[in-house]
């Protein structure tokens, strides 16, 4: 089903009251030369990369594939709103990070935080956005980036229960924010959180391309960090990649099986010049999609109930108009698929099968987020069960909905469907005000159905893995900066080529890069 945005961006339906009826829920020759090149000591000089992407001063249309209708032109107030939101969200990363080591807390401004390795990846990308927008200088962004990469490279990697930051190049999900070592024994070595970190690491490698000592070192460290990851080790249950490992328990029982944010994991694993997975791993993964393909809320799509699964990989990779064997067979690219998922979520909210308060055309968004707590209460004359942190979502695969709205669900989809995201974000900000929108932008989540004193439950802080998609996808919608930067990265292009992607911005050169890269004389760093 092709979505026609018509005049969605301009037509603002009237607000739906708390008890209203409308509700809803939940890269070629150069590439091969770089990929096969030997690794050098990370603080040595690196070859000068290509020039930075041109950043357009105005927002472009996103009608890049035949399946996607161009978005209507935004209104002046939309420009003002998105600039305010982008700057506030960037400021969260800048303020939250430890400037000495670059580690970023999972949630902030809570004082009892631990660092999230995934949030660090979003933060490394945020710094480049901040430099491009003038929120900080390029030198400030590069200095923060270099401090982060140096700390990560030097942090201990071993199999000990305590005192290590990671093992085999992977990092623990949560780290002590000062020491940079495993936060607690319940924290696993995480393949996906390491991948989100690497999204920021590879962005830094391609963004900081000037011939200065600092930027040369950034590129060298970024390359060393990526080459160090032993993807082949993380295949305990081949052919798929495992979700993680702990010293005491070994590999986790679960693999990356089924469509999800795992796209970027497999792309980076395929592209590795040192520890790649076999070329047919992507096909083994996409073969597990079948149970998720189908129709939900009028949209035919590859389902994944929480919207973060449709956003994380797309935050760094522009999937518009490029297709692998699976998407060619189903006549839809992954970008269009995420667009459909966004529309399906809004339609679910409009239908509001759970009868939750305030759900409707412009109040929607289900994804992993915090919640009011595990409790059952009587609300509006009926028993209601609520959750704490949970992967809320709505899709053909499952529905998990307790009335908790996460603004990042809409915000992280702004590049997919701005014509419905703008009205949602602006109405939520206008309706709920400072309870959900503060100096750092939108809080993690809120629940209008959960009574809290004389009002409703709202979180009091932000999460890095929520802030990241909002910031990166706003900038991708405005200028395409992150996407353009990542298109220059040889590892991203190699991963896409080896996964069988072609067309669009990849062009014909992908055919030259589909063989496994030779590690050459690369050393383990």
Automatic annotation (TrEMBL):
Q: Which organism is it from?
A: Gluconacetobacter azotocaptans
Q: Name one Pfam family in it.
A: Glycoamylase
Q: Where is this region: Disordered?
A: 1-22
Using the record's annotation, list all stretches that form the Glycoamylase-like domain.
Answer: 255-490
Name of the featured protein: Tat pathway signal protein
Q: Which InterPro entries match?
A: Glycoamylase-like_cons_dom, UCP028431
Top-rank taxon of the source lineage equals Bacteria
